[in-house]
């Protein structure tokens, strides 16, 4: 391959990557500081107990 062919292929890859990145960018997404998790439970009432099976 010649240098001009290599440059043409590189340019095509850059354009495809740019299209891909713009496609995945979601302008309606929540702002950076907002989380989907709003209400978490408090501390558990008791500690979980694990027992071995004896049979």
TrEMBL record:
InterPro entries: DUF5302 (IPR035172). Pfam families: DUF5302. Residues 1-55 are annotated as: Disordered. It comes from the Bacteria. Residues 1-20 have a biased composition (Basic and acidic residues). This is DUF5302 domain-containing protein. The lineage of its organism: Bacteria, Bacillati, Actinomycetota, Actinomycetes, Mycobacteriales.
